[in-house]
Amino acid sequence: MSEPVFFRRASMPALSEIVEWTGARPAEGSDLTATISSVAPLDQGGPGALVFLDNPRYADVLQQTRATACLISAKFAAKVPPGTVALVAGDPYRAFAAVVARLYPDANRPQVLFGGHGISPGAHVHPDARLEDNVTIDPGAVIGPRCQIGSGTHIAANAVIGPDVCIGRDSSIGPGASILCALIGDRVYIHGGVRIGQDGFGFAMGPRGHLKVPQVGRVIIQNDVEIGANTTVDRGANRDTVIGEGTKIDNLVQIAHNVVVGRHCIVVSQVGISGSTELGDFVALGGQAGVTGHLHIGMGAQIAAQSGVATDVPAGQKWGGSPARPIREVWRAQATLLRLAAREQAKTAKEKTAIE
């Protein structure tokens, strides 16, 4: 059996086209008629491949590449080996992403699994649902009454779209995802197994038991959001849970009821955000960070991985640790602890020598 190719290449562009797409500046005298047939990491790039160097940590690997071309910053351009065309870009990683998106357009958004276009005979679409032209629905998908789905949207196999849900244009809903009580914008990519709009965790606790508080809010997901596999976004209790435009959410994230996530935020895997917390625009939460409820994380704040946030974070600050505090305080505390440990170790060694 030959090796399967999961993403088909759309074209074999000449380097001149890549220069046009990215705005990169080729090294003087470069042959821009050479074509690119693949992308590869630095150490695996061979003839026909495009590679990139963005992280100085991998600068030593650059000499190993035999790729046709390398997108690279001006700082390292002189180190590109002979036979590889240096394409100098202000941001090599973004330039590389732009090229990959053109070479492999199907990898840029979740695709339907059954192939073809239109509504599969195996899908279950309620007669009161309203679908624009050019909607594709895989077998096993369930579309509830009064749903509205915009043109160019894909609904993959076994996804469930609940009553009255609205999904905009050119969006993708992955296999096995479920969407309830939600309004979703254009170009929103929701990967497999995501759960949106289920009950928030609300109970009035008491000595005779815990009384369930009905969750009657919605989930609002604005344009250009991407949500990774098996993430959960609870609907609001008495107001909306909101995900702002351009925000990117990794796999296995929990977003509780009434949370408001600003625009262009980054939320990395296994983050948990408790109810009624608000994130400003361009906030970044590292993996496994936990944020308690009713907090405000200011615009542009960055929270380190595995942090436990229990107080408001001012705009633009970098916090870490558990309980989280400004990152410089964390570093000072760690440095002090290491010095004390080293001092105690030296004292113990000295006392042991004296006894001997």
Number of H/I helices: 3
**Global morphology:** flat
User: How far is the N terminus from the C terminus?
Assistant: 70 Å
Question: What is the mean predicted local confidence, pLDDT?
Answer: 94
Q: CATH class of the domain at 15-108, anyone?
A: Alpha Beta
From the alpha-carbon coordinates, what is the Rg to the nearest angstrom? 26 Å
Largest sheet descriptor: 11 strands, mixed
Number of strand segments: 37
Strand order within the widest beta sheet? 8-11-14-17-22-25-28-31-34-36-37
Low-confidence stretches are: none
The CATH topology of the domain at 15-108 comes to Udp-n-acetylmuramoylalanyl-d-glutamate--2,6- Diaminopimelate Ligase, Chain: A, domain 1
**Helix- and strand-based class?**
alpha/beta
CATH architecture designation of the domain at 15-108:
3-Layer(aba) Sandwich
